[in-house]
């Protein structure tokens, strides 16, 4: 289970003074422009350097409905799979 250990080490590791939990918790404020310049810049650096957080950021920015997904029963399974498919296509185009 080396990969799981790596993932846990990564999620605990602070990149640019911000750990992953803080980066993800700050995503909405970041996109809303609610962070000051210094904090916003560190979030941006973290998102660019940290693959899991960067993916979460792209997901939240490009698919705002995912925010509503926190009330899971409001998002039909078919819509969820369409979003996931669209994200997979987007990532293939990026690479
Ligand atoms: Zn991270």
Features:
95 residues; mainly alpha; 7 helices; 74% helix; globular; binds zinc ion
Task: Please explain how this structure is put together.
It is a single chain. This protein is an all-alpha fold and 95 residues long. It has one domain (16-94). Helices cover 74% and strands 0% of the residues. It is built from seven helices and no strands. It has helices spanning 2-12, 20-25, 27-32, 37-49, 51-62, 65-68, 77-94. α4 (37-49) crosses α5 (51-62). Bound molecules: zinc ion. Residues 15, 20, 23, 46, 50, 52-53 line the site of zinc ion.
Brief account:
By secondary structure, the protein is an all-alpha fold. 74% of the residues lie in helices and 0% in strands. It has one domain.
């Amino acid at each position: 289970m080396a990969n799981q250990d790596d993932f846990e080490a990564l999620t605990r590791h602070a990149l640019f003074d911000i750990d992953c939990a803080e980066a993800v918790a700050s995503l909405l404020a970041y996109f809303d422009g609610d962070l000051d310049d210094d904090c916003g810049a560190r979030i941006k650096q973290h998102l660019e350097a940290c693959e899991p957080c960067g993916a979460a950021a792209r997901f939240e920015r490009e698919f705002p409905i995912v925010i509503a997904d926190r009330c899971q029963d409001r998002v039909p399974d078919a819509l969820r799979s369409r979003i996931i498919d669209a994200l997979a296509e987007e990532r293939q185009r990026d690479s």
